[in-house]
Amino acid sequence: AYIAIGIFASSLTKNQIAAFILALLIGVCFHFLFGMIAATSSGWVGEIFQDLSLTNHYDSISRGVIDTKDIFYFLSIVFIGLVLSEFMVSKRA
């Protein structure tokens, strides 16, 4: 998932340093920020951000629980990242 995010960030800019910083910011949002928002929010808003948090899905897989919801989450992030990257690259050409 992080590789797809990095490829997408790299497709947005020609500068490698800017792509790294952008990929880092997107990764931090998925890893930490969504989890913090979910912890401080209640109700359906908290549930949405909890479902968007990469940590939530990774924790269950690291415990050995392979759920189709978690696999679908990671595959969808990879798919969306690669499709958006392909769109940005084809837009430049």
Gross morphology is globular
Structural class: mainly alpha
- Mean of pLDDT: 92
Low-confidence stretches: none
Strand content: under 5%
Order of helices and strands: HHHHH
Biggest sheet architecture: none
Tell me the domain tally.
1
- The end-to-end distance, rounded to whole angstroms, is 25 Å
Number of strands: 0
Question: How many helical stretches?
Answer: 5
Helical content stands at: over 70%
Gyration radius from CA atoms, angstroms: 15 Å
How would you describe this protein?
It is a single chain. This protein has helices at 2-12, 16-40, 43-52, 54-62, 68-92. With 93 residues, it is an all-alpha fold. Helix 1 (2-12) packs parallel to helix 5 (68-92) and helix 4 (54-62) packs across helix 5. It is globular, with a radius of gyration of 15 Å. The model has no long low-confidence stretch (mean pLDDT 92).
Structural descriptors:
93 residues
Quick structural gist:
With 93 residues, this protein is mainly α. It is built from five helices and no strands.
